[in-house]
Amino acid sequence: MPIKNRLAEMHAEITGWRRDLHENPELMYDTHRTSAFVADKLREFGCDDVVEGIGRTGVVGVINGKSDSRGHVVGLRADMDALPILEATGLPYASKTPGKMHACGHDGHTSMLLGAAKYLAETRNFDGKVAVIFQPAEEGGAGGLAMVEDGLITRFGIKEIYGMHNAPGLPIGAFSIKPGPFYAATDNFTLHVKGVGGHAAKPHATVDTTVIACQIVVSLQTIAARNADPLASIVVSVTSIRTESDAWNVIPEHVELRGTVRSFDPVLRKLAEERLKSIVTLTAEALGGSAKVDWNPGYPSMVNSQAETEYAAEVAHRVSGVVDTNTPAIMGGEDFAYMLEACPGAYIQIGNGDTADVHHPEYNFNDEAIPVGTSYWAELVETRMPAA
Fold this sequence. Notes:
By secondary structure, the protein is of the alpha/beta class. The protein contains twelve helices and 16 strands.
């Protein structure tokens, strides 16, 4: 595995940064300590410009190459935020904040990009500029959109942009990527069902919201089974059913259901929203009740550009020799989608080995992936903007 020697030498140092970040997780846009840590490191490395406050708490560092004859700028993005999860790893560097945890590996993503930034600032073996981008609020806060709306792409003149995420189950040293739709659009819904409550022994005197809710759950599955092309990918999941009563003998007056819709095709995404609203309201009406739908649009589908995907795969192959270029699409969401809507680019997955899955209380980023990830970033910049 052709890891860059300098980055191999930095492995312990980058691991130290990662474990410090792991101990001090921060949520959404409240990444004040993390953002300051990143900005301080970038200045220490000698970045030519360090800008804070992009997208509220995002940080961008600019590193100039040996010359700028090409006038090209490559963007590299890492996410910084953690999750509201109680950590159960038992690690000596486990979260110091109960209920907050780096359960998705953003501590590793941030540290790998910092390592690459240090290397690139030292060597500057490229012709152009690189913008290292540290983003808050990937976990549901649309920090990627906030940074784009704050001028990320235009302000720094970024011509192509790349992201990376660890993948539990994929071996250390391996990568996976695919062109086109890679991660799904993520929409959420809350359904408010109203009937007439009463005694469970007298259902005829009520409008039973439990029956309505159950009928809605079953009927929503027809969106995937009967409205979508069988070759298309869509998930409609009801994940929560709540009532105002836990009594054995009470038919509740109100039931709240929550769930998510995942899709890739914008047309199918819109169809799913329309069919869901129709099924919910008309099913409730048919059974004597009523229902209101709160539809919450989430991240769009993340779509990798063809050319940039080929560049990324080629670089990953040079670094490790193990790249799956036709990996299955993923129904999870990723707000790097907003950056890819604004600029050509590609998102790749890097192996995290045999670990707990992301968003699990026993998950931990695998530090053995650090030399591979940092070498990928560095090689990507030196390949896309070779020194004149």
